Amino acid sequence: MAVIKIRNTNEAIEGDKAVGEFLQNQGVLYEKWDTSKLPDELKENCRINDEQKQQTLEVFDEEIRSLAQRNGYVSWDVVALSEETPDLEALLKKFEQVHVHTEDEVRAITAGHGIFIIKGQDDLGYFDVELEAGDVISVPVETPHFFTLMDDRQVVAVRLFIDPSGWVAHPYKDPEFEEQKA
To answer: What is the mean pLDDT of residues 69-88?
Structure first.
């Protein structure tokens, strides 16, 4: 179950319905996939090989194609990060910069945990969306955000793209976010 933490107020939002309503009001897609249909060797396993990544795509083929059809995505893949990922620290540093994209950033978590830090609309400020297996999120185009790992430092996620070559992160300098980090 996803949890939202609003940075300005320290308010926490829990429960699929409340999380979904909050994110919908922010223009962020949120839905759930049933990870119980994964084979046992893929459940909570974040150290998967290319064959297991393909197997993950096959297990969720119906969900992926439905999401793709509804939102215009034309390609997808699986990313797996863990302590065994080469240069994990450098990769995380690259991720942990506020940026925007010219298309949605979509993640369907199938194992482990991840967190999106998203700039809310109006005066809300930034909020964290802590995700676990089964949580699916799509951060809209041009929305300042970044993605990183949670304390267990491992995740497997299906990523969907409109541009077959993937998306490019465009840095977003935000004094509000820099003040919160200090």
So the answer is: 93
